[in-house]
Amino acid sequence: MRAVADAAKARVLAGFFKTGPGEYGEGDLFLGVPVPGIRRIVKTHRNAGPREALKLLHSKYHEERLAALLILVELYRRGDESRKKEIYDLYLAHISCINSWDLVDLTAQHIVGEFLVGKDTSVLTRLARSKNLWARRIAILSTYHFIRQGDCRETLRIAELLLRDPHDLIHKAVGWMLREVGKRCSIDRECRFLDQHAAAMPRTMLRYAIERFPAAMKSRYMRRALVGD
Q1: Which CATH architecture has domain 100-229?
Q2: Which pLDDT does position 194 carry in this prediction?
Q3: In the prediction, which pLDDT does 47 show?
Q4: Consecutive sets of 10 residues in the chain, 229 residues long: mean pLDDT of each?
Q5: What confidence score (pLDDT) does residue 44 get?
Protein backbone atom coordinates (compact mmCIF):
# COMPACT_ATOMS: atom_id res chain seq x y z
CA MET A 1 0.00 0.00 0.00
CA ARG A 2 2.75 2.42 0.92
CA ALA A 3 4.65 1.59 -2.29
CA VAL A 4 1.79 2.81 -4.49
CA ALA A 5 0.80 5.81 -2.34
CA ASP A 6 0.18 9.08 -4.19
CA ALA A 7 0.37 12.28 -2.15
CA ALA A 8 -1.62 14.31 -4.69
CA LYS A 9 -4.47 11.79 -4.70
CA ALA A 10 -4.33 11.67 -0.91
CA ARG A 11 -5.07 15.41 -0.75
CA VAL A 12 -8.03 15.01 -3.12
CA LEU A 13 -9.41 12.09 -1.10
CA ALA A 14 -9.03 13.98 2.16
CA GLY A 15 -11.30 16.68 0.74
CA PHE A 16 -13.78 14.26 -0.77
CA PHE A 17 -14.20 12.36 2.51
CA LYS A 18 -14.70 15.54 4.56
CA THR A 19 -11.73 15.30 6.92
CA GLY A 20 -11.78 18.92 8.06
CA PRO A 21 -12.60 20.13 11.59
CA GLY A 22 -16.17 19.27 12.53
CA GLU A 23 -16.76 17.16 9.42
CA TYR A 24 -17.73 13.49 9.55
CA GLY A 25 -14.24 12.29 8.57
CA GLU A 26 -12.34 14.72 10.76
CA GLY A 27 -8.69 13.76 11.10
CA ASP A 28 -8.76 10.75 8.78
CA LEU A 29 -5.54 10.19 6.83
CA PHE A 30 -5.11 8.94 3.28
CA LEU A 31 -2.32 7.32 1.29
CA GLY A 32 -3.83 8.17 -2.08
CA VAL A 33 -4.55 4.63 -3.30
CA PRO A 34 -7.76 4.23 -5.38
CA VAL A 35 -10.18 1.39 -4.67
CA PRO A 36 -9.17 -0.71 -7.74
CA GLY A 37 -5.57 -0.58 -6.54
CA ILE A 38 -6.63 -1.64 -3.05
CA ARG A 39 -8.59 -4.56 -4.49
CA ARG A 40 -5.57 -5.70 -6.50
CA ILE A 41 -3.43 -5.70 -3.38
CA VAL A 42 -6.09 -7.59 -1.42
CA LYS A 43 -6.32 -10.17 -4.20
CA THR A 44 -2.56 -10.70 -4.05
CA HIS A 45 -2.81 -11.30 -0.30
CA ARG A 46 -6.09 -13.23 -0.31
CA ASN A 47 -4.61 -15.84 2.06
CA ALA A 48 -4.04 -13.32 4.84
CA GLY A 49 -5.84 -14.32 8.02
CA PRO A 50 -7.99 -12.46 10.56
CA ARG A 51 -4.95 -11.51 12.64
CA GLU A 52 -3.31 -9.70 9.72
CA ALA A 53 -6.61 -8.06 8.79
CA LEU A 54 -7.10 -6.85 12.34
CA LYS A 55 -3.69 -5.15 12.32
CA LEU A 56 -4.66 -3.28 9.16
CA LEU A 57 -8.06 -2.44 10.57
CA HIS A 58 -6.40 -0.40 13.32
CA SER A 59 -4.33 1.59 10.82
CA LYS A 60 -4.55 5.38 10.85
CA TYR A 61 -4.78 5.25 7.05
CA HIS A 62 -8.20 4.98 5.45
CA GLU A 63 -7.10 2.74 2.57
CA GLU A 64 -5.45 0.24 4.89
CA ARG A 65 -8.65 -0.06 6.91
CA LEU A 66 -10.57 -0.63 3.69
CA ALA A 67 -8.05 -3.31 2.67
CA ALA A 68 -8.57 -5.00 6.04
CA LEU A 69 -12.34 -5.04 5.57
CA LEU A 70 -12.09 -6.40 2.02
CA ILE A 71 -9.85 -9.17 3.35
CA LEU A 72 -12.52 -9.97 5.94
CA VAL A 73 -15.17 -10.09 3.21
CA GLU A 74 -13.02 -12.57 1.29
CA LEU A 75 -12.39 -14.66 4.41
CA TYR A 76 -16.11 -14.66 5.12
CA ARG A 77 -16.99 -15.66 1.56
CA ARG A 78 -14.62 -18.65 1.61
CA GLY A 79 -15.20 -19.65 5.23
CA ASP A 80 -17.21 -22.41 6.84
CA GLU A 81 -19.92 -21.57 9.36
CA SER A 82 -17.43 -21.28 12.21
CA ARG A 83 -15.23 -18.88 10.26
CA LYS A 84 -18.23 -16.84 9.12
CA LYS A 85 -19.33 -16.41 12.75
CA GLU A 86 -15.78 -15.40 13.70
CA ILE A 87 -15.64 -12.73 10.97
CA TYR A 88 -19.13 -11.45 11.79
CA ASP A 89 -18.25 -11.09 15.48
CA LEU A 90 -14.93 -9.42 14.65
CA TYR A 91 -16.66 -6.94 12.33
CA LEU A 92 -19.22 -5.86 14.92
CA ALA A 93 -16.58 -5.68 17.66
CA HIS A 94 -14.55 -3.15 15.64
CA ILE A 95 -17.18 -0.71 14.40
CA SER A 96 -15.01 2.10 15.77
CA CYS A 97 -12.56 1.30 12.94
CA ILE A 98 -15.30 1.14 10.28
CA ASN A 99 -15.59 4.88 10.34
CA SER A 100 -16.52 6.11 6.88
CA TRP A 101 -19.40 5.56 4.49
CA ASP A 102 -17.33 3.69 1.89
CA LEU A 103 -15.97 1.28 4.49
CA VAL A 104 -19.55 0.47 5.47
CA ASP A 105 -21.05 0.38 2.00
CA LEU A 106 -18.47 -2.01 0.53
CA THR A 107 -18.70 -4.54 3.35
CA ALA A 108 -21.76 -4.49 5.63
CA GLN A 109 -24.10 -6.38 3.32
CA HIS A 110 -21.47 -9.06 2.61
CA ILE A 111 -20.77 -9.86 6.26
CA VAL A 112 -23.53 -8.64 8.59
CA GLY A 113 -26.38 -8.90 6.10
CA GLU A 114 -25.39 -12.30 4.75
CA PHE A 115 -24.80 -13.74 8.22
CA LEU A 116 -28.21 -12.67 9.51
CA VAL A 117 -30.24 -14.42 6.83
CA GLY A 118 -32.57 -16.81 8.61
CA LYS A 119 -31.39 -15.62 12.05
CA ASP A 120 -32.53 -13.18 14.72
CA THR A 121 -32.07 -9.68 13.28
CA SER A 122 -32.51 -7.74 16.52
CA VAL A 123 -28.84 -6.70 16.28
CA LEU A 124 -29.91 -4.40 13.43
CA THR A 125 -32.33 -2.68 15.78
CA ARG A 126 -29.54 -2.13 18.29
CA LEU A 127 -27.25 -0.75 15.59
CA ALA A 128 -29.98 1.54 14.24
CA ARG A 129 -30.49 3.00 17.70
CA SER A 130 -26.78 3.51 18.34
CA LYS A 131 -25.28 6.95 18.90
CA ASN A 132 -22.51 5.89 16.50
CA LEU A 133 -23.21 7.22 13.00
CA TRP A 134 -21.44 4.31 11.32
CA ALA A 135 -23.29 1.70 13.37
CA ARG A 136 -26.55 3.22 12.14
CA ARG A 137 -25.32 3.15 8.54
CA ILE A 138 -24.27 -0.49 8.99
CA ALA A 139 -27.80 -1.26 10.17
CA ILE A 140 -29.47 -0.04 6.99
CA LEU A 141 -26.72 -1.09 4.53
CA SER A 142 -26.68 -4.63 5.92
CA THR A 143 -30.24 -5.02 4.69
CA TYR A 144 -29.01 -4.64 1.11
CA HIS A 145 -28.25 -8.37 1.19
CA PHE A 146 -31.90 -9.09 2.03
CA ILE A 147 -33.03 -6.82 -0.81
CA ARG A 148 -30.84 -8.74 -3.23
CA GLN A 149 -32.61 -11.89 -2.10
CA GLY A 150 -35.98 -10.30 -2.89
CA ASP A 151 -36.89 -9.62 0.75
CA CYS A 152 -37.51 -5.99 1.71
CA ARG A 153 -39.01 -6.48 5.17
CA GLU A 154 -35.82 -5.75 7.14
CA THR A 155 -35.03 -2.70 5.02
CA LEU A 156 -38.45 -1.18 5.63
CA ARG A 157 -38.27 -1.98 9.34
CA ILE A 158 -34.87 -0.33 9.81
CA ALA A 159 -35.79 2.56 7.51
CA GLU A 160 -38.73 3.36 9.78
CA LEU A 161 -36.41 3.41 12.81
CA LEU A 162 -34.12 5.86 11.03
CA LEU A 163 -36.75 8.22 9.62
CA ARG A 164 -35.84 11.01 12.02
CA ASP A 165 -32.11 10.44 12.13
CA PRO A 166 -30.28 13.78 12.28
CA HIS A 167 -27.40 12.95 9.92
CA ASP A 168 -27.35 13.53 6.17
CA LEU A 169 -25.33 10.34 5.58
CA ILE A 170 -28.15 8.30 7.09
CA HIS A 171 -30.75 10.18 5.05
CA LYS A 172 -28.84 9.26 1.87
CA ALA A 173 -28.34 5.64 2.91
CA VAL A 174 -32.00 5.06 3.82
CA GLY A 175 -33.20 6.77 0.65
CA TRP A 176 -30.82 4.64 -1.42
CA MET A 177 -32.06 1.41 0.18
CA LEU A 178 -35.69 2.43 -0.33
CA ARG A 179 -34.90 3.06 -3.98
CA GLU A 180 -33.38 -0.43 -4.18
CA VAL A 181 -36.54 -1.89 -2.62
CA GLY A 182 -38.51 -0.46 -5.54
CA LYS A 183 -35.92 -1.56 -8.08
CA ARG A 184 -35.22 -5.11 -6.85
CA CYS A 185 -38.20 -6.17 -4.71
CA SER A 186 -41.47 -4.32 -5.15
CA ILE A 187 -42.28 -0.83 -6.31
CA ASP A 188 -45.66 -1.25 -4.61
CA ARG A 189 -43.98 -1.92 -1.24
CA GLU A 190 -41.78 1.15 -1.65
CA CYS A 191 -44.78 3.30 -2.56
CA ARG A 192 -46.81 2.04 0.39
CA PHE A 193 -43.91 2.98 2.67
CA LEU A 194 -43.65 6.42 1.08
CA ASP A 195 -47.40 6.95 1.23
CA GLN A 196 -47.19 6.44 4.98
CA HIS A 197 -43.96 8.31 5.72
CA ALA A 198 -43.12 10.79 2.93
CA ALA A 199 -44.46 13.78 4.83
CA ALA A 200 -42.15 13.04 7.78
CA MET A 201 -39.05 12.05 5.83
CA PRO A 202 -36.01 14.33 5.53
CA ARG A 203 -35.98 15.88 2.07
CA THR A 204 -32.69 14.23 1.05
CA MET A 205 -33.96 10.78 2.06
CA LEU A 206 -37.11 11.25 -0.01
CA ARG A 207 -35.23 12.55 -3.04
CA TYR A 208 -32.94 9.52 -3.03
CA ALA A 209 -35.91 7.17 -2.62
CA ILE A 210 -37.86 8.57 -5.59
CA GLU A 211 -34.92 9.20 -7.90
CA ARG A 212 -36.08 6.62 -10.47
CA PHE A 213 -39.75 7.54 -10.34
CA PRO A 214 -41.52 9.19 -13.30
CA ALA A 215 -41.71 12.98 -13.02
CA ALA A 216 -45.38 13.00 -12.05
CA MET A 217 -44.82 10.56 -9.18
CA LYS A 218 -41.79 12.54 -7.99
CA SER A 219 -43.86 15.72 -7.91
CA ARG A 220 -46.65 14.02 -5.97
CA TYR A 221 -44.31 12.78 -3.24
CA MET A 222 -42.41 16.06 -3.05
CA ARG A 223 -45.72 17.87 -2.53
CA ARG A 224 -46.41 15.54 0.40
CA ALA A 225 -43.04 16.49 1.85
CA LEU A 226 -43.91 20.19 1.54
CA VAL A 227 -47.19 19.58 3.36
CA GLY A 228 -45.24 17.77 6.07
CA ASP A 229 -42.91 20.73 6.42
Answers
A1: Alpha Horseshoe (1.25)
A2: 96
A3: 86
A4: 94 95 95 95 90 96 97 96 97 97 98 98 98 98 97 97 97 98 95 94 95 93 70
A5: 92
User: How far is residue 139's CA from residue 7's CA, in Å, rounded to a whole number?
Assistant: 34
Domain ranges within the chain, ordered by starting residue: 1-97, 100-229
Q: For residue 74, which of 117, 45, 103 has the smallest C-alpha distance?
A: 45
Q: Please provide the CATH number assigned to the domain covering 1-97.
A: 1.20.1660
pTM of the predicted protein model: 0.94
Do the Cβ atoms of 7 and 29 come closer than 8 Å?
no
3-class SS of residue 29: strand
Q: Nearest-CA neighbor of 64 among 87, 48, 41, 94?
A: 41
27 Rama class: left (phi>0) / alpha (psi -120 to 50) / beta: left
CB-based contacts of 30, cutoff 8 Å, min separation 6: 9, 10, 11, 13, 14, 17, 19, 61, 62, 63
Q: Are 134 and 100 in contact (CB under 8 A)?
A: yes
